[in-house]
Structures are given as structure tokens and as C-alpha cells.
Specification:
The protein has 202 residues and is of the alpha/beta class. It has a single domain, classed as Peptidase C15, pyroglutamyl peptidase I-like (Aminopeptidase), CATH 3.40.630. The protein is 29% helix and 21% strand. It has 5 helices and 8 strands; from the N terminus they run E-H-E-H-E-E-E-E-H-E-H-E-H. The strands form 2 sheets. A 6-stranded mixed beta sheet has the order 2-1-3-8-4-7, sandwiched between helices. A two-stranded antiparallel ribbon has the order 5-6. Strand 1, helix 1 and strand 2 form a beta-alpha-beta unit. Helix 3 crosses helix 5. The radius of gyration is 16 Å and the shape is globular. The relative contact order is 0.23. The mean pLDDT is 94.
Length: 202
Amino acid sequence: MIEAHPPALLVTGFGPFPGAPENPTAALIRALADQAPGTYGAAAFKTVVLPTEFARSWSTLKRLYRSFAPDIVVHFGVSVRAAEIRVERTARNRLGRGRPDAVGVMPRRTQVRSSGPESLLVTLPVFDISAALSAAGIANVVSDDAGDYVCNATLYRSLATFEGTPRRAGFIHVPPADILPREELERAAHLGLRNAMRIVGV
């Protein structure tokens, strides 16, 4: 257990970006927004749709980390190339320079943080989450490559920010809506969140 009291849980998704004019994680976050904190054993529960922008997504999160102060953060994002859910295990200190974000910005550098380690491990029970999804018949893999776009940058920054504290973070990539329908996505998200909370024994 990382806390003696029920933790505050933050769940995020992303808005549209080039190649994904409708991001299914935005609809997911709106569907989760009305959940009571006790649904997942949390003391407080908050959801937010982040802009798929290298700069503004992180500035939004930093404000939330100060004002809401979550103990556990679960990020959701869409991978247009995924054929199943990808429970991310690793964030890489890298930025791709060939893909613009939602406002057309491309990174000028190749690292998320110039002085950060090459990779950081997710601090949620990745294999428990994957096993729960598999037991429910939901196709998934544990992934060691969260890409080099805004999703990976967000995960890396969260993990780096929480390093040395009891706060935990992870990322779940989902496939496009034509592969994973909305109802199935919501079912997978509930399972993912419940098992993410196993880190605190709830």
C-alpha cells in the first residue's frame, strides 16, 4: 500500500489530433466523469480531456498536479496503429520530430527532458491490469514502447514528476473505435482502473 488513506485518482484522455479527428478516449473520459469516487475506492476522483499538444497538455497537467494533487494517475490515449489495448510498461525520453500535434507544432528537440534517463517504468500494476483484461476476453498486450508522440511525452513527464514520491502513474493505449467499440472500451477502462487501484489494496 502506498497510502494509509484512500487515494485521489485522476484519469485523463486526449482530444483529436492529425490522423485521429475523433479520439475515442475523449468520449471515454466524458462517460467516466460522473462516476462516484467510491466506484474505484478513491477519496476523490477527477477526469480531464487533455489537448493533444506537446506544450499545453503538460501545462494543464501541471496545474492539476498542484490543485487536485492526485495519488494515482491513469492516462488513456488512442494508437491509430493498435489492433488491441496496449498496457504501457515504459516511457521513453524521446520525441518524434516528424508528427505535428493538434495545433501543428513539431518538437524542436528529440528528448522529453534533456537531463532525464532514457526510460522510466510505469508505477502501476501493469501485469495485473493486463491479466484482468484477458480474463474478461478483452484483447490486450503489455507494451514496452509508448511511441514518441504526445502520449509518451505525457507519461514520461508524469513519471519523472512523481519519481521519489508515493504517487503512481500509468498509460493505456486503446485502438480506434472501429476495432474497440465504445461499450467495450468503457468496460475495459473500468477493469483497468479497478486493477490500477490494487496498488493501494482497494
